[in-house]
Design a protein that fits this description.
Blueprint (H helix, E strand, L loop, with lengths): L1 E2 L5 H11 L3 E9 L3 E8 L22 H18 L10 E5 L10 H6 L4 E9 L6 E13 L3 E6 L7 E5 L3 E6 L6
Parallel strand pairs: 3-4
Antiparallel strand pairs: 1-2, 2-3, 5-6, 5-9, 6-7, 7-8
Keywords: Plasmid
GO biological process, one term: ribosomal small subunit assembly
Organism: wastewater metagenome
Length: 181
Amino acid sequence: MIHVNRQDELWRTIDGIAETFGMTVYDLARRGSVGLVVVIARNESHLLDGGDKPKFELGQGGVTSDDCSKVVRELMVYFQAEGERFGLPNEPEIEVCSPGVNRELRLPEHFIGAVGERVKVTASSHSPATGESMKATITGRLLAADDKRVQLIDENSKEKAIVEFLLNEVRKARVDFDFGN
């Protein structure tokens, strides 16, 4: 899958359709040239991060299967007429889903919306001292996030160390909800 940039016309078009149902696009990916994976969240237009990016605070009246069905039906009708314009067949395979409890964190606003939650982050960077490539997977409470970096408390370190990664170092991240507590 290839993730679509939120400034892309395809994202903006699908977001406009989702908005008619009170939803917003949380994430979007192309599935080759035949389909799309559209992740939607409830549109909380009053939760803006100071710009035009939604602040995702999920869990308050989440997306239902009925919401997904409505959006996918509308997208199918739209792409029957306009699919070719976006490099899609007239009847593309479209999957519409909610982000879920253990949602992927990919965009800055995803991280910002997850501040305070338990997350799992895999990041890689180069050691300034040795020049070696390093990879780390850290699980802990997300303390802070902005357009450039994330900070979390490493729950596996004895001293509960605060770890910071630049967003461009993050290879994979998701909310890691603790169902035991």
